[in-house]
Amino acid sequence: xxxxxxxxxxxxxxxxxxxxxxxxxxxxxxxxxxxxxxxxxxxxxxxxxxxxxxxxxxxxxxxxxxxxxxxxxxxxxxxxxxxxxxxxxxxxxxxxxxxxxxxxxxxxxxxxxxxxxxxxxxxxxxxxxxxxxxxxxxxxxxxxxxxxxxxxxxxxxxxxxxxxxxxxxxxxxxxxxxxxxxxxxxxxxxxxxxxxxxxxxxxxxxxxxxxxxxxxxxxxxxxxxxxxxxxxxxxxxxxxxxxxxxxxxxxxxxxxxxxxxx
Length: 262
Known about the structure:
There is one protein chain. Mean pLDDT is 91; it is low at 8-15 and 17-24. Strand 12 and strand 13 (226-238) form a beta hairpin. The protein has one domain (27-257): outer membrane lipoprotein receptor (LolB), chain A. It contains 5 helices and 13 strands. It is of the alpha+beta class. It has a 13-stranded antiparallel sheet with strand order 6-5-4-3-2-1-13-12-11-10-9-8-7, covered by helices on one side.
């Protein structure tokens, strides 16, 4: 009798494992596209990046013309800690996020405030739509990855498209060159205050080898098909030690007048 009961237990256990494997959704085609892109960007070196420090210029555009530009230093500790300092005509603005919280220093008004829930949500949306979030797998356990297909990308060119769909139905599509697997763009929709869909798109260009990692030095942003901004990196450093204190909200705004030291 004991042997009979044990055999039933083993059968049930095997059936349970088989059922779990069969119901687990793994889009092998999408995973293959992601894997190829990771290899193109540096393989294990890319996956082992923990921090990033970027310096360059951020431009605001309208109808193809530059309205204004600022220099910036952007400090990231992956996956969700970021501090960006902008400077224009000697005036500094600092935006810092850490998980579900953040703060902003407005140098023109000399005001330091916590971010609003909407501002924090905007940061988190940007993180979920980022190329690094997809390729380094920070989305796993929070979203599903699927293969969309191939899409025209100019004369004689096609891109392969994969899609991340989060549990709250927020979705991001990523396009990769069907020829070599390099990242091309990321696209998603958001609702504006009038509850209307707004199409957002990031396009990646000018990949540069930095410490064995292919990195886009230009990121152009489009809203509803019109270019609204450009990030143009002048230098990027990976895996430099970054103290956690730079993400803490300072008690004195005088501390923010000094450039962040790294």
